[in-house]
Amino acid sequence: MSKSFLYSEIAENLASQIRNGIIREGDKLPSVRMLCAEYEISMNTAKRVFLELESQSLIYAKPQSGYFASKLSYKDLPLPGESNPILLANHCEPNDILQKVYANIGREDILLLSYTVAYGDMLPISQLKKEIVQATRALPTGGVQYDRVEGNANLRRMVAMRSLTWGANLKEEDLITTNGGMNAVALCLMALSKPGDTVAIESPCYPGILQLALGLGLKVFELPTHPRTGIKIEALKEVIDKIDICILISNYNTPVGSCMPDENKKEVVELLASQDIPLIEDDVYGDLCFTGHRPNCCKSFDTTGNVLWCSSISKTLAPGFRVGWVAPGKYKDKVLNVKLVHSISSSSLEQEAVANFLKSGKYDKHLKNLRQKLYLNYQNYARVIQQSFPKDVKISQPQGGLSLWIEFGDKIDTIELYDAAIKRGISIAPGRMFTLQDQYNNSMRLCFGVPWNAQLESKLKQIGILAKQLQRLNS
Amino acid sequence: MSKSFLYSEIAENLASQIRNGIIREGDKLPSVRMLCAEYEISMNTAKRVFLELESQSLIYAKPQSGYFASKLSYKDLPLPGESNPILLANHCEPNDILQKVYANIGREDILLLSYTVAYGDMLPISQLKKEIVQATRALPTGGVQYDRVEGNANLRRMVAMRSLTWGANLKEEDLITTNGGMNAVALCLMALSKPGDTVAIESPCYPGILQLALGLGLKVFELPTHPRTGIKIEALKEVIDKIDICILISNYNTPVGSCMPDENKKEVVELLASQDIPLIEDDVYGDLCFTGHRPNCCKSFDTTGNVLWCSSISKTLAPGFRVGWVAPGKYKDKVLNVKLVHSISSSSLEQEAVANFLKSGKYDKHLKNLRQKLYLNYQNYARVIQQSFPKDVKISQPQGGLSLWIEFGDKIDTIELYDAAIKRGISIAPGRMFTLQDQYNNSMRLCFGVPWNAQLESKLKQIGILAKQLQRLNS
Questions:
Q1: What's the gap between Cα A349 and its chain centre?
Q2: How many angstroms separate the Cα of B142 from the Cα of each of A29, A282, A351, A418, B235?
Q3: Which residue, A92, A466, B5, B92, is most buried by CB atoms nearer than 10 A?
Q4: Residues of B numbered 83-102 whose beta carbons fall under 8 angstroms of chain A's beta carbons: which are they?
Q5: Residues 163-222, chain A, touching B (beta carbon < 8 A)
Q6: Locate the HTH gntR-type domain: which residues (chains A, B) (predicted)?
Q7: What average pLDDT does range A109-126 have in this prediction?
Q8: Predicted local distance difference test score (pLDDT) of residue B118
Q9: Using a CB-CB distance cutoff of 8 angstroms, which residues of chain B are in contact with residue A115?
């Protein structure tokens, strides 16, 4: 085992003990010497372990006393309960809050906490500019001519190689590139569904998926979902005879941040395969684990080609590049045909640039950085929420991704909160966007991909003040 | 009137007299002096007029005798008749010839005459590479962050400005950018149709539109279409009570190359508006007039916002960039919402580069060049077809665009011809791709966007030889 691997293994081991409450707030950690003895490592390696934990705000040093576990403010706030949607396929009319919120995309005069995007120095913009320039020069026709329908070969090769790390064994020819992750899901759903079909999803659910399903004339089953472990499998079993397709955001789901445990992934994959119900897996957040290894996907447990694994670099690297992909399993021809008909091919330039970024190892370095920044951000958000939001607030405890799900008491309507916040230059995502039923009216999603600074802290506090005002007004 | 305008006006005037047979093969043209007197122009201007006509192969000089009208080989071949599809909404299963043909996109080992794309030095590749590099540097985040849903503002402004030249008066905010022209049509059709609706189209029709309609669960009415003037308006009137949407490629249509006269455009627009049936206008070839002014669009005659005008630079500049747009009239909110749901936003980089290319005037220079090359190419194709194809062949007479529609006698099945040609490294587009009915089996489309050279000439001749062999075999 290499030294650097060893040090990060040990750090991760201790980190998860702290996060899971095995080591509690104020507990003294083993000394440097004890760690050396226990793991048979050098003093230097042991010191690196503590520095790593300190940089993640998991521990703090007391002069002459050693290291102690930090207070993890997000631990103090209760988790929202498992969701409880009505188990009936139903079609409400989409409400216009969605259009209102998404009309703000790309605006620079507003603090955008409403979309799950990493902003500012979270993304390696100057490195990516260089990659684009190089790709433009390197591509035979500079990307001016049509690419093949399946998309850039270098990118598909790099994505296939990375799939080894999460237990899949994809090959270049298993993959099709798309205009971002949502486009991958859209192509799959168009390829597999016919109007009147029923699709099962998590609840609350990413609004793009809800709107997509409605637009294609599908019926939607919202499944009860736990904020840590994802859909309740019992509920899926209950409706299994009534559904034609299932769509899940398996890892660090938006909005609730759930990550399905391996055993749940396996069980769901086997259950759906046994009924020949395709599973469209949206895995755009999988690379954003706060620490440790990237989680497996449902695709890792797919032995029949029944899982269509969709992902992108929109959440981790460059949203504006519109680079995504899908490994559609046994449905490849169908998906390829829909891509051809809807957009012929995709732009090759950004795909080539991303492929080179992955190949050079810069992506992994960037991810390491980004994950740590996001984790610290999440802690900061949780601290401010605890200090400034109404006392009865509940928040999710994601272990990765970009979304925080916040549940207020029932006196607060988050559509009213949106209206109040947007006047102060803050955009939030009201809970009603994430369902086709009349629920989540007192919940909202905040993205923690905005770099931390005093202005962000002050705006977050403002949201808290506005929420308290609404609470008083409606009491 | 400026001098350069004057000279090109006069040249175009004479050119159209030659093309329309008012001046016939071998007819002597007026002398330079006569032209000077008739139009009150200088000797130099008159000489430029003749040089222009000569460069288009429309006239030739005889020493000491003056200029004479050339033999226009395409004039000798008869035009295919008006099409005659069954006037019933029907759904055949798509046949697999389409997948077979489109699987070749982007291949470099095959002569691709099957897609309507301009290749090689027809496109200003090195100029576009420079634009990309500059756009990457100029964009605030290098295109890394999400653009607004409606797309790049500079591009929308430039497209709006150009719309003045064809009688529309679009503004930046009337436009939404898309991933190419086909994606624009797809977004419009998804925004406006519901499964079971009926759409009226030209016949033969661009296969992407047929497949798109089938994929969305729509019924399709194929309308009789004249190879010069487009759909037969009487037929549209006949089915008007049975249709919900109409899609037309109004200018230099693919595959037949028809261009609707202004009075037809106006009549169709008024007819559809009176019945509240939206018209999706696909105008991707409009900029590719061989000579003279770019034609008007149906959108030019739209007073009610009922026309959704779709276009792109895929046929004129950079297919691989996937840059298109739509002016959706009164349906803007619906189209914007579908774009949001299916792909969130589009890649900004290529849009910015194209906007700058338009702004700099390089696009107009490029177009002038490209139009002339395409016209000469078309003449060369027609000459080889006349010399080497079976005697009873008929070909369309497009005045722009990239497609030639070729009709053989009924002994030739162009799917068989495809199979024979692909073995020799040539890809053609069999007529059966362009309909959902059992017709056009003896027709095919050839793209004339491939730069002319000896190899292309020899491959075209090979197609002729193969066609003659098939004719003998099947007689």
A1: 25
A2: 45, 27, 15, 30, 51
A3: A466
A4: 99, 102
A5: 179-180, 182-183, 186, 190, 194-196, 208, 211-212, 215, 217
A6: 4-72
A7: 92
A8: 93
A9: 146
CA distance B418 to B288: 27
Question: CA-to-CA distance for B471 and B409, rounded, in angstroms?
Answer: 8
Class of domain B3-71: mainly alpha
pLDDT at B360 over 70: yes
Share of chain A residues as helix, strand and coil, in percent rounded to the nearest 5? 45, 15, 40
Task: Assign A1 a pLDDT band (cuts: 50, 70, 90).
Answer: very low
**Given an 8 Å threshold on Cβ–Cβ distance, is B346 in contact with A322?**
yes
Helix (H) or strand (E) run with residue B311 in it: strand B307-312
Which residues of A fall within a CB distance of 8 Å from B333? 99
Q: Spell out where A137-258 has E strands.
A: 176-178, 198-203, 219-226, 230-231, 245-248
pLDDT-derived band of residue A5, with 50, 70 and 90 as boundaries?
low
Q: Is the Cα torsion angle A218, A224, A227, A233 positive or negative in sign?
A: negative
Q: What is the pLDDT of residues B389-443, one digit of tens each?
A: 999 999 999 999 999 999 999 999 999 999 999 999 999 999 999 999 999 999 9
One-letter amino acid at B356 equals N
The angle formed by the CA atoms of residues A297, A303 and A304, to the nearest 5 degrees, is 115
SS3 A112: strand
Structure tokens at A226: 């736990």
Q: Which CATH number fits domain B125-362: 3.40.50.300, 3.40.50.460, 3.40.640.10, 3.40.50.2300?
A: 3.40.640.10
Q: Does B436 touch chain A (CB under 8 A)?
A: no
- Check the CA dihedral B459-B461-B467-B472 and report its sign: negative
Strand partners, A281: A248, A309
Cα(A184)–Cα(A159) distance, rounded to whole angstroms?
14
Name which residue leads in pLDDT, A159 or B104. A159
Sign of CA dihedral B252, B256, B261, B264: negative
Rg (CA), chain A: 23
CATH number of A75-121+364-473: 3.90.1150.10
Which residues on neighbouring strands pair with residue A427, listed in sequence order?
A112
pLDDT top residue among B210 and A91: B210
Higher pLDDT, A469 or A79: A469
Strands A198-203 and A219-226: parallel
- Return the domain boundaries, chain A: 3-71, 75-121+364-473, 140-363
Q: Which two tokens stand for residue B224?
A: 């009789």
Q: Cβ of A102 and B340 within 8 Å?
A: yes
- Decide the pairing of beta strands B245-248 and B230-231: unpaired
Which stretches of B63-106 are assigned E, i.e. beta strand?
A: 66-69
- CATH classification number, A140-363, choose in 3.30.250.10, 3.40.640.10, 3.40.50.720, 1.10.3720.10: 3.40.640.10
For residues B314-338, give the mean pLDDT.
96
Q: Chain A contacts of B343, Cβ < 8 Å?
A: 179-180, 182-183, 186, 322
Six-digit token string for A157: 């090769």
- Name the fold adopted by B77-121+364-473: Aspartate Aminotransferase, domain 1 (3.90.1150)
ipTM of the complex: 0.85
Collect all residues of chain A within an 8 Å Cβ-Cβ radius of residue B129: 136-137, 142, 144
